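Ticket #4471: structure export looks truncated?
Reporter: QA, pipeline team
Priority: medium

Steps to reproduce: submit the single chain below to the structure queue and open the exported record.
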Amino acid sequence: MTLMTQMDCCTRLGIGPKTLRHWLRHAKMQFSTHPADARLKCLTEEQVQQLATLHARALQMAPDPSLALSEEVTPLASSPGDLAGAQENEAPPLSPTRSLPEEAELRKTVGVLEAKVLTLQEQMTQLALELLRERTERYEQRLRTLEALLPPHATRAPEVKAPVPTIEQPPHSPCASQRPLQPAEWLARSRTLPRVEYGVQGLYVLICPQEGLLSFPVDSPEWFDWFASLHSFRFIGSQGRFTAYREGQTRSWKAYRSFHGRSHRRSLGITDRLTVARLEQVAASLQSEMNSLS
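Actual output as written to the record:
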């Protein structure tokens, strides 16, 4: 009985070891142990012939058994000196400690960059706050200049309260309503806040940047509907002034006024409570606080 090693079987059948094992599993065959070396897996020549017949394979020329056996056994019979030489020729593994200085330097660089980013963020915040404070002070300065230009009786509170405040009716000007607005005028009106202003004759004027003077009375349903459509407005009353804004998407309003770079706020309540009396009350409260700080 002639035994053939696994490599010889693959060579004669022209297949790989994985395919050979697959064929053996389907043919219900198993490798046998070589009598000279138990580590070698072998098949008989009859088994190889049977596999070739099952899979229609033509067997190639058989190699010299003694040569094949010597090739299989020779690597196993290597001397200890040869093994030592092979181990010496192997490249030594890279030491992970070689990259520690580079990693430390990289971490140091990242730390420096993070510190610079934090410094830049703080500088940007300070610049934004400074610009906001400067703009608020400039706005307040312009208001004080305009108030100084008004006649004395225009800023003095009336001695007798009007029984029913009404809206001043502006004179109708056909030319003004028919003239198309220039782009610069539209831009200026879009940046102007709606305004409720106390007039000289004790009457309140409602000014809309897009529609001009409004003609409905104060504290009327149209009055509250108009406030419901706004997000912010400016109030200039007989006892003070402030700017009001809506808190997010709610119906609540806040009034604020800036003085010496600080913002002072008051709650106005919901839209249904924005009466003239409530607006004057909050304006007087803020004006009293401004007077105490000046």
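Status: closed, not a bug. The export was complete when the record was re-opened. Leaving a note from the reviewer for reference: The chain has three domains: 3-75, 115-151, 186-294.
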